[in-house]
């Protein structure tokens, strides 16, 4: 695994804060029973945040027909919905929620061409709430496969996420399993697939980005 290129500054800042905290604890808190555990805690925070922003090296399972998970997380919603804003038709929605312990790098779910990419500012309510899909800050991308099928996914900010990175640009040729961006802290991915897609997961399943197949289209 390597550190995501968009998070160098964030990780360095975390290191500086943790290092300063450890220095102050060891320098000015003489009670070792307090300063040592707190210093160890700050070291664990630094290590956790380094892991959190890593990009895993995985073997892609998706292609133009097999839709792979955009992120690590838990499947929290599978249902047919009317997508009126972009697709203007019924679609199969599969939502994956990421918590603090999941890697937050995101990956293209299918191979094809980006036909639409848009960033929408918004609220920061908890990502597992249904209204978060429309009201929270998010980035929306549509990929058209070689056989003309549209796959749309939203990177949703959560209650703590404050930055969404997406590499999508109209006309960009993409391959399933390659990194498409990252969301910082707890958040959600909504995938909108053709309504006749063959689902390969169920609510409650733990999925891994790149390697887990959500559906066939």
Main attributes?
217 residues, alpha+beta, Glucose Permease (Domain IIA), 2 domains, eight-stranded antiparallel β-sheet, three-stranded antiparallel β-sheet, 16 strands, elongated
Model description:
- It contains 3 helices and 16 strands.
- The protein has 2 domains: 2-55; 66-216, Glucose Permease (Domain IIA) (Distorted Sandwich).
- The protein has helices at residues 8-28, 32-52, 132-135; strands at residues 2-3, 54-55, 66-68, 73-83, 89-98, 105-107, 112-120, 138-144, 150-157, 164-166, 173-174, 179-183, 187-194, 198-199, 206-207, 213-216.
- A hairpin with a 5-residue loop joins strand 8 (138-144) and strand 9 (150-157).
- The strands form 4 sheets. Strands 11-7-8-9-13-5-4-15 form an 8-stranded antiparallel sheet. Strands 3-16-14 form a 3-stranded antiparallel sheet, with no helix packed on it. Strands 6-12-10 form a 3-stranded antiparallel sheet, with no helix packed on it.
- Helix 1 runs antiparallel to helix 2.
- With 217 residues, the protein is of the alpha+beta class.
- The protein is elongated and about 65 Å long.
């Amino acid at each position: 695994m390597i550190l995501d290129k968009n998070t160098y500054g964030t990780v360095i800042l975390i290191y500086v804060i943790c290092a300063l905290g450890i220095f102050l604890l060891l320098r000015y808190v003489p009670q070792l029973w307090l300063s040592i555990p707190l210093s160890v805690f700050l070291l664990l925070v630094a290590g956790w945040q380094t892991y959190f922003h890593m990009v895993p090296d995985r073997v892609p399972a998706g292609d133009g027909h097999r839709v792979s998970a955009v992120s690590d997380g838990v499947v929290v919603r599978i249902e047919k919905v009317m997508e009126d804003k972009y697709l203007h038709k019924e679609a199969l929605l599969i939502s994956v929620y990421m918590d603090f312990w999941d890697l937050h790098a995101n990956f293209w779910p299918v191979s094809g061409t980006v036909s639409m990419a848009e960033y929408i500012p918004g609220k920061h309510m908890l990502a597992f709430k249904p209204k978060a899909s429309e009201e929270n800050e998010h980035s929306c991308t549509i990929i058209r496969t070689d056989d003309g099928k549209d796959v749309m996914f939203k990177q949703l900010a959560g209650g703590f996420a404050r930055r969404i990175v997406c590499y999508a640009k109209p006309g960009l040729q993409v391959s399933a399993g390659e990194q498409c961006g990252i969301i910082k802290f707890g958040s959600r991915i909504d995938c909108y697939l053709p309504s006749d897609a063959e689902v390969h997961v169920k609510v409650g399943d733990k999925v891994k980005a790149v390697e887990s197949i959500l559906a066939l289209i």
